[in-house]
Amino acid sequence: MTTALIVVDVQNDFCEGGSLAVDGGTRVAQDIAAFVGPDFRPDFVDSWPRHCVVGTPGADFSPAVAGLSFDAVFDKGAFSAAYSGFEGTIGGEDDGQGLHAWLNARGVGLVSVCGLATDHCVRATALDAAKHGYRTTVLLGLSAAVDPLRITPVAEGLQQSGVLVVE
After folding, report:
1. Count of H helices and E strands in the chain?
2. Which helix (H) or strand (E) holds 63?
3. Which CATH number fits the domain 2-166, given the four candidates 3.40.50.850, 3.30.9.10, 1.10.8.10, 3.30.460.10?
C-alpha cells in the first residue's frame, strides 16, 4: 500500500516572525526538511489576523522547506476559512483537483500528517484523512501547536477518531 506524507501549513506567517507565528514553527520546518530530505481582534481560537495572503512573502513556504520537491501543493482558504488540507485544491481553483482525489488516483492508503499547527490545521487534516478511509498517523515530533497545552487533548481526540499519534 502506498504511503503519503502530508505537510500542513509550513508557511512563513506560521513560523517565528510571521503574523500568526507558532512557537517552534521554524524548528518544525527544519525538522520536516531533514525528515524528507479585514481588521478585527483575533482570539487565536476561532479568529485570526490576516495571514498567508496570496502574493505576499507570508504565504511563501518557509525557506527550510522551500527547496523540497513536493509532488503537489493544495492551496486552501482562498475564498473562505479552511483548516483541513482536504479543503484545498491544486492551484486553489474551485475546479482544481482536491487532495482526496489526488491521493486516491495514486493508490495512497496510508498518510502521515505533520506541520503547523497541531491543534488546528494538522488536526483537521488528520481527521478528514481518517474520515476518507486513509490509515492516518500524526507525527507530533514534526509538528507544533498554537497552544502547547492543547496537544494532549488534541492527541486524545485524534486517537478516539482512529488516528495514530506518534512522537
Report:
1. 5, 6
2. helix 63-66
3. 3.40.50.850
Q: pLDDT at residue 90 above 50?
A: yes
Q: Supply 9's cell numbers.
A: 501549513
**Per-residue pLDDT tens over the stretch 62-85:** 999 999 999 999 988 776 778 899
Residues with a catalytic annotation lie at 9, 76, 121
For 121-165, write each residue's pLDDT tens digit: 999 999 999 999 999 999 999 999 999 999 999 999 999 999 999
Q: Counting every residue, how long is the chain? A: 167
